[in-house]
Amino acid sequence: PPARELTQNPLQKTWEPYDNGLPAGHSAQRGVCMTNCPTLIVMVGLPARGKTYISKKLTRYLNWIGVPTKEFNVGQYRRDLVKKYKSFEFFLPDNEEGLKIRKQCALAALNDVRQYLSEENGHVAVFDATNTTRERRETIYKFGEENGYKTFFVESVCVDPEVIAANIVQVKLGSPDYVNCSNDEATEDFMKRIECYKNSYETLDETLDKDLSYIKIMDVGRSYLVNRVMDHIQSRIVYYLMNIHVTPRSIYLCRHGESELNLKGRIGGDPGLSVRGKEFAKSLAQFINEQNIKDLKVWTSQMKRTIQTAEALGVPYEQWKVLNEIDAGVCEEMTYEEIQENYPLEFALRDQDKYRYRYPKGESYEDLVQRLEPVIMELERQENVLVICHQAVMRCLLAYFLDKPAEQLPYLKCPLHTVLKLTPVAYG
Amino acid sequence: FSSPSSSRTRIKVDAERKKTFVLKMPMELTQSRIQKIWLPNDNRPALPRRSCGPQLANSPTVIVMVGLPARGKTYISKKLTRYLNWIGVPTKVFNVGEYRREAVKHYSSYDFFRPDNEEAMKVRRQCALAALRDVKLYLTEEAGQIAVFDATNTTRERRGMILNFAKENGFKVFFIESVCNDPTVVATNVMEVKLSSPDYRDCNSTDAMEDFMKRINCYQASYQPLDPDDYDRELSLIKVIDVGRRFLVNRVQDHIQSRIVYYLMNIHVQPRTIYLCRHGESEFNLKGKIGGDSGLSNRGKKFAVALNKFVEEQNLKDLKVWTSQLKRTIQTAEALQLPYEQWKALNEIDAGVCEEMTYEDIREQHPEEFALRDQDKYYYRYPSGESYQDLVQRLEPVIMELERQENVLVICHQAVMRCLLAYFLDKSADEMPYLKCPLHTVLKLTPVAYGCRVESISLNIEAVNTHRERPEEAKKGPNPLMRRNSVTPLASPEPTKKPRINSFEEHVAVSSALPGCVPQEVPTQMPGQ
Questions:
Q1: What CATH number has the domain spanning A251-422?
Q2: Which residues of chain B have a CB within 8 Å of the CB of A272?
Q3: Which residues does the UniProt record annotate as the domain 6-phosphofructo-2-kinase (chain B) (predicted)?
Q4: Quick one: B61-266 is in which CATH superfamily?
Q5: Does the annotation flag A364 for ligand binding?
Q6: Which chain B residues are closer than 8 Å to A261 by Cβ?
Q7: Arithmetic mean of pLDDT, B187-208
Q8: Cα B152 from chain centre
Q9: Entry pTM
């Protein structure tokens, strides 16, 4: 049979086959097939071990790289069902009423998982609960098998009382469960709650669980045990989990100082700083000085304007080509007016779907995210960092930290001469 | 400062502002000619050439392999070293067994490895120390960043000695232990790589196997595996269990260790084949134009059909097909009638302002760029485009996924294919841009022993030749590892010599005299260069 004709999608500029003038069946996929069948991630661990922290962070990362992910927190289901939390006694292992309700909540959550993965085009569901018994995990695993999901367990093990106490202070005292309690009362109750789980806790075992796919995180990332990673997405998840940390730090994001082309209303190019841009660079130096940051790393792109900005700081900096501004292809160095005049169709298409729109011979925001992923990974590894970049790039990075979806990303406000200071707090 | 009268006050204000930091030269930058990197003008030591991304390694690192014989230590050592060098981290393997073979010319039997053989123990220890001396030299004087110390290192005592050595020299240490108790795996390893070892040159397979198994036994009694829960809890290590079924990772210290762990977790030893080829000949190929996004020529379409037949004949289980997002590779894949994945990362090198030009055009319109490229083709970045070095960075996720996969056919482009091939065949940055990747030829790569077997299969469809040899006169710059300041002045090109131009015209005359002949590649030597 003759080879099918190719047509270029006007928005994304990708070549797709078509039969008789209609887009052909989906034999052409873009990028790595991250997930063949949906994946169910199952958190495991005693309370206050960082399960929800990991769930939310992982979900944020996967969504940012384009894998539709959602978390299902069983505690939330419980709070919806049992309007008012009384005390730790709800969690006593012999509290039959409590056990019944808790099982009900788990099943309701699993039901929503099934809906998300099988009916709503979700790729990954994160099932956030203690899941501390082998029996409970078997139930979930069977559920996964019945529905054609791959299951991957993430267990957090920690015995350091200081870490646990810090977690409680960070996220439990502010929980809706303890809205009418003093901090001391809340802490005491929560410690008793943890005790309720301890006797029946069956950690993932080298022999008994040897056929499961899982990662065991020990002492907030000091060491890891990884068993039977099955596919690409699990491998990426493991890599991500091994790179994140909880050490307090700040990330500073800003654009280069105003450039000569900014002044002319032209996009792209590789211009130098304007006079005001140089002023900004000097102010930035002063600002950084005043912040008194320990061991600040400074990163720039390989475009002149970010490097000039960094030069004013008088500290070492690293140049990353992947931090370069979005490539506007044939529209480079044009004004928006000129683009509208010379490429009216392109101009219109961009407004239609700014995230997916790729400039002819250029890039899209979607391409940017893919090229920025190593930057995000390294930012996770690092502590205090200042990233001097560009508007579209900064929007992508910001969307990752603030969990903004693709539709909002290209419209995030990142004005010149403004620094965004990001500090991790609680779950965000 | 405009008016003299106000200058005194201005100076006073500025003196206050200066405070703790020194105002440098007002942000003057120059763009390096080959790599197009912006550097400050004040002659401060510029970024080391390789730093186009995160500082991958600050202090040098010694990777220490641990494990009984036939557990894949040398396999991992060599593969890891190949990967690290490809991503630009100078790495070298130091195999103590090789030092032993140097010291003890003839291997007699496993008796050499018996724990009560004092004479042999002395020799073995000396070999380890000699290897460590070379490690030190490599890391401190030869600009190496990572040394892989490949030996059994099965006792705490030996590992303690290495840790002391590293501490004295300011090296980081990362242990990689391979633990495997599956007798089938061990036997396979012995057959793959031990029977053909120089040690067993004069033995038959059965005797060799028997001796080697006894050799392994010699280590077993004194083997102290890494114990991250207790004794070794402060060490940075990864334990690879049962050829990658399970991993134990402890105290990853930095970026490069994190990358090493990720890499080790993605590689596997399942037999499989990787096929690399370019798109079929394109319309632009016919015109001698580089880059662009043209479709296949008639011969290119014939190639696609031939490729389909070839793939069918290979009779593979589950072949994955990958293309770039440029039309010509996708058109080629379409002929296969198999599902394929499009990767933007596989797009051809971006020639920036030179896109869609012929080499003639480039030589005419950008003569300096043309010359610079021949001078240092790996690091050379097209204005507003990319370099081979940039390509390697963008292809790294492709390599990582290729390691995870089994049978894969990658339909890509000349520069891209060279980068991928350099990874599999362990070719240096210097050789990479000149690897031969002709159109209409499939390279079939099969992992074997410690490396890769490559078979070149031409599908016998005519195509233009797009390969440009390394020009003889092109000066090779100083060793890239040594060059710290990439704004090194370049020697001026030689003056034009008439006779060369004449011979060029001759060449052209000959071609056009033969009607219907395949348009030859345009001569690429600049007159006088």
A1: 3.40.50.1240
A2: 27, 29
A3: 50-271
A4: P-loop containing nucleotide triphosphate hydrolases (3.40.50.300)
A5: no
A6: none
A7: 92
A8: 26
A9: 0.89
